[in-house]
Amino acid sequence: MQMITGVRFSICNPNLLYNSNMDGSVRVWDMRNIRHPVAKFVGNHEGKVKPLSCFDFNCSERYLCAGTELDEENAYLLFWDFRINKILGGYWETHSDDITQIRFHPARPNTLMSGALDGLINVFDIGQPDEDEALQATLNSECAVNKLSWVKDRNGLEQISCITTDEVVQLWRQEDPKPQRIICRKNLSQAFVDHVPIDHILDNVIFDDKMYACTGASSGLGLVWNITNEIPELTAVLSNGHRDLPRVVLFNQEHIVTGGEDGFVCIWKPEVECPVPEVAMEIENNSSLNINT
User: Fold this and answer.
1) Which of 6, 77, 136, 282 is paired with 217 by a 20 to 30 Å CA distance?
2) Where are the WD repeats (predicted)?
């Protein structure tokens, strides 16, 4: 089996886990018996299996979409119907480089956005009869797209969040020609007199009606920022967990989970007192919450 490029739990059945692979397949696993996948969707289009770089399924869990790396001159969005386990077709005229992210809308089952190394963010209505009519908007981030998500601003208006490979958060309205807001590492670190190491922006999420961004440093230090307002506010320090750069983050009601290049998965929870390294101790004086393993 080749490299895994995406993992996601089912919406409808918490026992089902999906993963995409560079071997051109999306597999579905039942966590109660993981010897063999319970379903397999193969990216065989026009007689050729294409390596899958990312995937997602819609909110009704009826349609599956996977993106591919550049194949000759095209990068593909491939679609399946879960009910018949048959490839429905694809789009291949809207991206000119590897597709890095696919995100269905959390409430509108036919709305899909994709991002790629070509810097484009495309929004589709997959209920339309062909690719030209399906394409609703194209946004140019002017840098390779690393992560996409559907978010809302402080007024509850929908936005598209894009994190680029040069570690910049862009917040877009679908109908606007340029981002409404741009947040870079300098915007976050300039709140402090001393240098604050920020090497990577892991993700940004909406949690309890506030928008947060999580950053990481090669030392293993993680920082969580409230970026709801124009001036970012440091709200949590994640220290003494990782020994190398944190890469991924997950939030829920009680914990923050991070994974790093050191191979560790760290689970963080709020504590009143905890030891922190010197750089985190300096930052802690400016934060409202200190978190440790």
Assistant:
1) 6
2) 92-126
